[in-house]
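#structure-requests
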Amino acid sequence: MTEIEKLEETVAHLLRTVEELSAVVARQDGEIQRLSRRVGLLMEREAEREADGSNTIPLADQRPPHW
């Protein structure tokens, strides 16, 4: 195998790796966007709940019954 063939093989492997990584990044970008929308909706929902003026303590902040 000549030096040129070795370099071509290396470049081919690198190109495949770059394409695979690009696909991973694109998938992660879509997931981040989806999760960001969900967090935004949850924050809006919580803001509406707080704005309703209900003076109840959120369940997560209440003491367990055995205390």
